[in-house]
Amino acid sequence: MTRRLTPAERLAAADKNTTLDSIVARTSDWDRFLVEQAVYAFGLAKDTFSANDLRRVLPELSHGYLGAAINSLRTAGLIEHTGQMVPSTSGPTHGHRLSVWRLSVKGLLIAEARRPRKAAA
User: Fold this and answer.
1) Rounded to whole angstroms, how far apart are CA atoms 15 and 114?
2) Residue partners of 104: CB distance under 8 A and separation at least 6
């Protein structure tokens, strides 16, 4: 049996969704493309990754966008949580714990399809 949310929990969830929507609205298709490509590249090369890995290779994105993008990829079923957590290496987060992700089967299929093919010799 699921627990009913309190009014405060419902308001917090609604505020979180509004905040994520406003973050996504301020970003471009190019930002989304860059994050997706970085996720696919890390997923194919390393098996697992966190926002720390992605931040090292991405340009500065609007505040909060990387987290929103990761959440969107998770919701779309392209990545899945490994059950592991790591401390953030971003100063402003003060070592906040980050999820470790891997590509799902669906994400692996898309990443493989997008992988550049070598020209035949």
Assistant:
1) 35
2) 77, 78, 79, 80
DSSP for the chain reads -PPPPPHHHHHHHHHHHHHHHHHHHTS-HHHHHHHHHHHHHHHHHHSEE-HHHHHHHSPP-STTHHHHHHHHHHHTTSEEEEEEEEE---GGGTT-EEEEEEE-HHHHHHHHHHSPPPPP-
pLDDT at 17 over 80: no
For residue 38, the number of C-alpha atoms closer than 13 Å in the C-beta half-sphere is 21
24 token code pair? 């996504």
pTM of the model: 0.69
Give pLDDT tens digits for 68-115.
888 889 999 999 999 999 999 887 777 789 999 999 999 999 998 888
